[in-house]
Amino acid sequence: MTLRRFGVVGWTLVLAFTALMVLTTCGRPTPQQPVPPAPPPLPDSPTGSPAAIATATGPFESGPVTAPASGAYLGAWVRPAQLTQPERVAAVSTLERQLGRKLDIVNTYRRFDQDLLTSSDLTFTERGSTMMISWAGGDTRAITAGQYDQVIRTGARAVKAYGKPLLLRFRWEMDRPNMAAAMWSPADYIAAWKHVRSIFTAEGAANVSWVWCPTNEGFVGGYAQPFYPGDDQVDWVCVDVYAGTRFAPLGELLTPFLRWSAQHPTKPIMIGEFGVARAWGPAQRAAWLRDAAEVFKANPQIRAALYFESDPDNGNGTPTNEFRVSDDPPALAAFTELAREPYFNPPRR
User: Fold this and answer.
1) What is residue 110's predicted lDDT score, i.e. its pLDDT?
2) Catalytic residue among 61, 87, 96, 173
3) Helix, strand, or coil (residue 54)
4) Which of 10, 15, 32, 157 has its CA 20 to 30 A from that of 67?
């Protein structure tokens, strides 16, 4: 009798406790994934001295596009609303009005089979900017085997007819993992580079400065350096660097590349693309850009820096990263400060 009553009471308590737990659980929010910590704040204006690593001041062997005697050229890739010639001109003009100055260098991108120079490129040239053509290239072994010789020859003749000094960034970011199949190996890339350059020489396209430009990640990981064709083949050494998924000051990001570049003191440095993602917030972006200006000035081997004024997408219109500063007032103000500094407005040579 006592055991039976105890069993009933016990089961009653168990059922009551279970019901209470169910109600409590139903009223509790679903656990969320942990939010990544915010990046450590950068100062509103740099308070320390960035590391001076690449301190060569010339003279530099920079080819027809001569490095400035001091300071650094400022440029950008400015993505237009539509990839048309009028829209390209309008996009660059809008950014220049916001900055209150002309860009020294205008970067643009070409597939291997596209015309190297377009009407908008001629417009930018007439307005006093130097053009940088980022030329995609193709399969390196096919290039070396001569399968693209006519494409290369056509490009060389167009550049020669253009007649102005021009920066050619042949197959930039060749060290990216997704380029491995087309690049085959560093040795294959170097052979293709030399093949392309030899055709330009044969066609008399002597107005080209050759820009070699891997990724910053490649220098951090040690897999960019083997792609270097050599000082006799390259006029400007270059890197693309972003505070995208990882937020860190530019000087920290650039350290491996700057250490490598310091071993090539006759080659001016170009920052071919740099940017800070919108995800980090307006104040952090502005601080990052102000710090970037100090990094450039602390490393005088850097003689050109080009911002990536674009929001890349996945091909369906969904941004994968947002680097545009023109619609972010604090970031734009910081970039405008940089753009108007005398250091970034050197006399053209």
Assistant:
1) 98
2) 173
3) coil
4) 157
**CA separation for the pair 274, 13 (Å, rounded):** 65
pLDDT score, position 40: 58
Report whether 242 contacts 323 (CB < 8 A). Answer: yes
Sign of CA dihedral 318, 322, 326, 330: positive
Please tell me the total number of residues recorded for the chain in this structure: 349
The two structure tokens encoding residue 27: 């009223």
Beta strands, E only, the chain: 73-78, 105-110, 130-135, 166-170, 208-212, 236-243, 269-276, 302-309
Burial 7-41 (b: 16+ CB within 10 A, else e): eeeeeeeeeeeeeeeeeeeeeeeeeeeeeeeebee
Catalytic annotation on 273? Answer: yes
At residue 94, what is the residue type? T
**Predicted local distance difference test score (pLDDT) of residue 49:** 75
pLDDT in tens, 259-311: 999 999 999 999 999 999 999 999 999 999 999 999 999 999 999 999 999 98
Phi, psi of 209 (to 5 degrees): -100, 125
Instruction: Show the tokens assigned to 292.
Output: 């970037």
Cα–Cα distance for residue pair 190/185, rounded to 1 Å: 9
Q: Which of 254, 236, 241, 349 lies closest to 295, judged by CA?
A: 254
Domains in the chain (CATH in brackets) are 64-342 (3.20.20.80)
Alpha-carbon gap, residue 308 to 322, rounded angstroms: 10
With a CB cutoff of 8 Å and minimum separation 6, the contacts of 290 are 44, 45, 46, 334, 337, 338
pLDDT of residue 23: 35
Nearest-10 Cα torsion for 288, 262, 211, 193: -130
Q: Which is the catalytic residue, given 96, 273, 294, 322?
A: 273
Q: Under a CB-based contact definition with an 8 Å cutoff, are residues 212 and 229 in contact? A: yes
Write out residues in the chain with pLDDT < 70, as ranges.
Answer: 1-48, 314, 317, 319-320
Tokens 């916001």, located at residue: 98
